[in-house]
């Protein structure tokens, strides 16, 4: 399998392999992406939840993957490790001319190298936010994984293209989402308590 060219983005990767007889797995994508695999895996794991597509069967294993990647960011790993079960997960097959890929290419155009680098306390904070987003993605309630998936997608794109501003923006939005989901959970528990 050929190494992915450094000038190719995630949309190009998915388009190039969309016509293959067998869907691309996460492990194969990791090999193709090389040094850019850490940020790219954030994108690939968050994509099914972030796009307006059915995410049945993807939310829990891909949310777990985001959680593991967050731990690896905190630990300072430069190349991601994922459990074999997750590496064997097949990426969703998209039509090469689909609107989803066209939208992803437009989004990729917004990112460029700038802002703070992914090291030190900033890296640890990004990793902690990723762990929280991964946990939110695994909530077994339909529709609850779209917002954290979109936030993880933004963070992953920022990491992939070394765009510290977008990475920080994703981290701030993720913190807001955590507060929102926490407030909603507290409200539901309080409602049950009052009704009981």
Please give a structural write-up.
- Helices cover 64% and strands 0% of the residues.
- It is mainly alpha-helical.
- It has one domain (10-195).
- It is globular.
Following the backbone from N to C, one meets helices and strands in this order, namely HHHHHHHHH
Molecular shape: globular
Give the tally of structural domains: 1
How many strands? Answer: 0
Low-confidence stretches: 1-7
Keywords:
64% helix, mainly alpha, globular, 9 helices
Quickly describe the structure.
The chain has 196 residues and is mainly α. It contains nine helices and no strands. Residues 1-7 have low confidence and may be disordered.
What is the secondary structure topology, with strand pairs?
Elements: H1 10-16, H2 26-33, H3 37-50, H4 59-75, H5 84-87, H6 99-108, H7 120-137, H8 146-160, H9 164-195
Helix pairs in contact: 1-6, 2-3, 3-4, 3-8, 4-7, 7-8, 7-9, 8-9
């Amino acid at each position: 399998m050929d190494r992915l060219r450094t000038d190719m983005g995630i949309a190009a990767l998915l388009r190039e392999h969309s016509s293959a007889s067998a869907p691309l797995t996460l492990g194969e994508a990791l090999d193709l992406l090389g040094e850019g695999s850490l940020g790219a895996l954030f994108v690939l794991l968050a994509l099914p939840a972030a796009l307006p597509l059915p995410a049945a069967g993807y939310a829990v294993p891909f949310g777990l993957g985001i959680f593991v990647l967050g731990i690896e960011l905190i630990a300072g790993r430069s190349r991601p490790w994922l459990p074999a079960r997750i590496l064997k997960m097949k990426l969703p097959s998209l039509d090469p001319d689909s609107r989803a890929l066209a939208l992803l290419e437009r989004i990729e155009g917004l990112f460029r190298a700038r802002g703070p680098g992914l090291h030190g306390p900033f890296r640890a904070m990004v990793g902690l936010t990723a762990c929280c987003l991964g946990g939110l993605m695994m909530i077994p309630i339909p529709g609850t994984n779209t917002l954290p998936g979109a936030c993880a997608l933004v963070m992953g794109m920022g990491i992939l293209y070394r765009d510290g501003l977008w990475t920080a923006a994703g981290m701030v939005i993720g913190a807001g989402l955590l507060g929102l989901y926490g407030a909603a959970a507290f409200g539901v528990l309080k409602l049950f308590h009052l009704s009981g």
